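Hey, quick one: can you model this chain's 3D structure?
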Amino acid sequence: MQAKIKYNFSGKMWNGGWFFISLPKSISKEIRNHLKWQEEGWGRMKATAKINELQWETAIWFDTKENTYLLPIKAEIRKKACLKLNDIVTVSIAI
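Sure thing. Here's the predicted structure for all 95 residues.
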């Protein structure tokens, strides 16, 4: 089993058709420099995310326009964590 690298950050949840939290550009740069080889199609990279006590398997997606990874926040997680648009959310991801 391969060890995972963990990152912690806070970001504002926004809506662009889906709900997302953008990873900080400094973290995105580090991930891209060291872990890009793990990307699948369209800049998708498998990850485990955690908000509060909710943990789920997901993926982050690289946004070439913003030069950062995006973490989608599905409705089930938003509901369980009582998250609303523009909330500042503390997230932990492991890649």
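One thing worth noting: The mean pLDDT is 94.
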